[in-house]
Design a protein that fits this description.
Strand order of the largest sheet: 2-7-1-8-9
Radius of gyration: 16 Å
Bound molecules: guanosine-5'-monophosphate
Distance between the termini: 5 Å
Low-confidence stretches: 1-7
CATH class: Alpha Beta
Mean pLDDT: 90
Strand content: 15-25%
Number of helices: 7
Number of strands: 9
Structural class: alpha/beta
């Protein structure tokens, strides 16, 4: 049964270079683990394609974001690809209060900050593409990024891949089903669940 059950204070932090398949994998986790809530980040980057405010992200101006930093509203924040991204402290607190574990799709800097701030609660997972060439092909196939954005994301990916060893678990996404099975089992363990217990 996929019934909601009280989860302990857990942060499941997933980082990956853009195009490593993280979004698909996170969607499947949310479907399979009812006790997980996705943390919706705040960002200063412009919406892409059909992205909606409050669903993909909370889209704000640089000024609003900087005011949020000053007011201590973020549990972590980072500059990624030239834009601010941050996790709201309130989102984490509300989820903990509701007994829900939180799934965070954030960059390697954010993962390091949360690991430091919540060492007992944080499980960090790095999703790695098989290689950088595959990553570039996937980014182009997505068709939502400009050449400049692709170049910037590729440079950033090289740096992110170098951080992989600092994560609790690294999963190589060469084959989606295999990668998801590994991810599902790791998350089940972090949530104290029997991996066979899902629907
Ligand atoms: P994108 O612009 O492709 O949606 O996201 C770019 C990068 O920012 C991704 O690596 C994503 O995981 C990261 N990111 C998204 N939200 C946050 C956040 O709240 N904090 C941090 N540190 N990184 C984030």
């Amino acid at each position: 049964m996929n019934a909601t059950r009280p989860a302990s204070r857990k942060l499941i932090v997933i980082s990956a270079p853009s195009g490593a398949g993280k979004t698909t994998l996170c969607s499947r986790l949310l479907r399979d683990f009812a006790e997980l809530t996705l943390s919706i980040s705040t960002t200063t980057r412009a919406p892409r394609g059909e992205e909606k405010h409050g669903v993909a992200y909370f889209f704000v101006s640089r000024q609003e974001f900087e005011q949020g930093i000053q007011a201590g509203e973020f549990a972590e924040w980072a500059l990624v690809h030239g834009n601010y991204y941050g996790t709201s402290r309130k989102t984490l607190e509300d989820s903990f209060r509701a007994g829900r574990a939180v799934l965070l799709d954030i960059d390697v800097q954010g993962a390091a900050s949360l690991r430091q701030a919540f060492p007992a609660e944080t499980c960090t997972i790095f999703i790695s593409p098989p290689d950088l060439e595959t990553l570039e092909t996937r980014l182009r196939a997505r068709g939502t990024d400009s050449e400049e954005s692709i170049a910037r994301r590729m440079a950033n990916s090289r740096q992110e891949m170098a951080e992989a060893s600092r994560f609790d678990t690294v999963i190589v996404n060469d084959e989606l089903e295999k990668a998801y099975a590994a991810l599902q089992s790791r998350v089940a363990k972090a949530l104290g669940r029997d991996p066979g217990g899902r629907t």
